[in-house]
Fold:
Amino acid sequence: MQLSGLEIFKYLPGSQKAAHTNCKECGCPTCMAFAIKLAQKQITFDRCKYMPEELKNLYKKNLKSPQKTIKIDGLKIGGENVMYRHEKKFVNRTVFAVVVDCKSPDFNEKLKRIKNFEINRINEKMKVDLVILKNAGKHPLKNLCDETVYIEEKDFLKLSLKKIIDNSFSKTASELVKIRTKAITERDEKYSDPVYVYLKSSPNKFNLCARASYYLCKYANMLVFEDFDESLFATLMTLRQNIYTDPQKPLQVEPKIYEFNNPDENSLVFMTTNFALTFYAVANELQNLKVPSYLIVTPAGGMSVLTAWSAEKFTAKMVAKTLKKFDILNKVKTREIIIPGLLAPMKKELEKALPEFKIIVGTIEAYSIAEFVKKIT
Ligand code: SF4
Structure:
């Protein structure tokens, strides 16, 4: 585990009130500030001349990632540094792989389904990450490649990966926790290989999905499936996208005016916050509407509409300031702004702050926008 600011501070002069305490020679106002910066890798340890050797050695040892990173073409497997995402972040997403047997009668059909499978969520296109080809023989591997990575089974088996065959949920789950703990918390190099769970073919897709979801959360670096099932992969990819976000960075888009279907001065004007999930939900609907429109996205620190409102990141005053900054009055003759349905209680406040505009309360859910637009146009 990487050293925290507090752990580093314990070794510095400041914690013992020794000579040079808070001397500022490192460029930081206090030893504590230096410790925090060092923990966040914003400064190098040689900036403090008074750091004891013991801390230098400990810091260097902890700099090395406790889990190896294995690469297959552009795919990265492992390389994790923490047990829990909130400690820092998870680095490389759990890879989803499917085994395809070139000698199997359903080879072509299975491969075609894998190639055709794709989901789009929060502006991200997701495909099967890896196909492991069994009995590839002289199969032209290069011709198969699209966004999915292909590898022959014989080459895959040579990689430094730890395999767990999923014969029992409890055994697999506890083995995964044990390996991750040994690697990260105890920094035991014997456990530094990334881990994959091999999930055999099963007619019970619900159970397969439940087990795979758990292993995805704790702590499989890769899941290898004998079966390929579109609904299973779509579910797991949605879960994975949520787990592998950086907790220090809210999912947000740039605050600005977005245009859909070539809007002009008579087009509809919608408004929302810069929370990515909300933005893409609304943007997809507006794009598919085939009606020209603008979407004003306000800066709200990546918070959803209600959260931003309750945290005072979406106030009438702020909205008025944003509209002025984006110069919306010169863009449209329309003097109507459609606000999210969840902000209905703000209508009067907004009308007061934006006397030039008529405030229209829109829908609570993005999927109702089409129906709503039909009614008002
Ligand atoms: Fe503390 Fe070292 Fe920075 Fe001086 S140089 S303030 S002792 S961390």
